[in-house]
Amino acid sequence: MPEYSEEVLLEDFHRGNHKAFEEIYNMFFSRLYAFALSLINSEPEAEEIVLDVMVIVLKKHKDFKTVKNIRAFLYISTRNACFSYLRAKKRRKIKTVELDSTLQADGSLEIRLLEGELLTVIYTAIKTLPDKCKTIMEMLYLEELDVNAISEKLNISVQTVYSQKSRAISILKDALAKNIPVLFSLLII
After folding, report:
1. Are 145 and 116 in contact (CB under 8 A)?
2. How far apart are CA 4 and CA 6, in angstroms?
3. Which of 80, 105, 130 is the last residue of a domain?
């Protein structure tokens, strides 16, 4: 599916176009899920909360003026739904006092939001690496294999592993530098 420009995406979304909603869903679901999961630590509940918030956005499709407004609404609604879930859980006498105090203390909510966004940017950037670089980075950082194990597994020299890692890091630095404004814009929300 071709990428939407923000203007076209917003116009199509206002018209109730399901492909536009699908694009918004794909853009934000995994980020919101990670955010909700970091707040409530329950996979099924985090998924349900994000799905409910997505349904609300679909119903309010004509109310948004920019994609940034949609993103802000999604995060705020997800956060509020998570807090409502935690309050309901607390009323059922399940201990959430520590989580509530942690989330309300010293900006940890913003830090978790930024961590989720940064991880999304990094994983997205890794997916765009050339195949050898991508494979080696995934093995190093996701599978946590050492250079010798990767060398043996891929039947390549240790120097090639180091070379591909270095190339990947260089590419990732450039990709991440382009996304720094996105991460800083989250501080404004």
Report:
1. no
2. 6
3. 105
